[in-house]
Amino acid sequence: MRITTILAGGLLSVALAGTALAGPMDARADLDKNGQLTKTELTTHLDQRFAAIDANGNGQIETAEMQAARQDRRARRAERRKARSGDAVGERSGEKRRAMRRGKRGQRDANGDGVISRDEFGARALKRFDLADANSDGIVTQEERAAMKEARKARRG
Ligand SMILES: [Ca+2]
Ligand SMILES: [Ca+2]
Ligand SMILES: [Ca+2]
Questions:
Q1: Contact 129, 141 (CB under 8 A)
Q2: Are 35 and 142 in contact (CB under 8 A)?
Q3: pTM (2 decimals)?
Q4: Ligand 1 centre from 44 Cα, in Å?
Q5: What's the CA-to-centroid distance between 35 and ligand 1, angstroms?
Q6: Which of 15, 39, 5, 7 is CA-nearest to residue 25?
Q7: Using CA atoms, how far apart are residues 148 and 23, in angstroms rounded to an integer?
Q8: pLDDT, tens digit, for every residue of 23-42?
Q9: 113 alpha carbon – ligand 2 mean position (Å)
Q10: 92 pLDDT band (50/70/90 cuts)?
Q11: SS3 33
Q12: Which domains does the chain possess?
């Protein structure tokens, strides 16, 4: 039951975040939806996501748990695709996103012991947060988020 609720909430947030807020920061982490992301919100969001994946609750994400989470996401994506028109385009960009995620996931297991600790799980997101938080006040505003997006775009050329 709990998982169903989390999934439904996640889907709703994704739908809401789909356009304007999509960017380097995860808009789902903005728990009070005020357009600003605090470090506390990010940590809470990461805790929740980690707990949702860590099915046996041992504080580590094992390969099997990662695979289960992946299948979960795949199922949800299939649902979304079904609900959407213009499948050909969606499929292509979906492939690209999947490839990107695979790359990210590989880097997550920083010490290569085959399991992902909570620290490893959150490391990249926290690093991104610090990068985006230009004035280091512990809050990423929409302006800071937009600036980071622009900077990324410029780097990509
Ligand atoms: Ca917020
Ligand atoms: Ca586990
Ligand atoms: Ca800031």
A1: no
A2: yes
A3: 0.64
A4: 11
A5: 6
A6: 39
A7: 9
A8: 345 678 999 999 999 999 99
A9: 14
A10: low
A11: coil
A12: 2-156 (1.10.238.10)
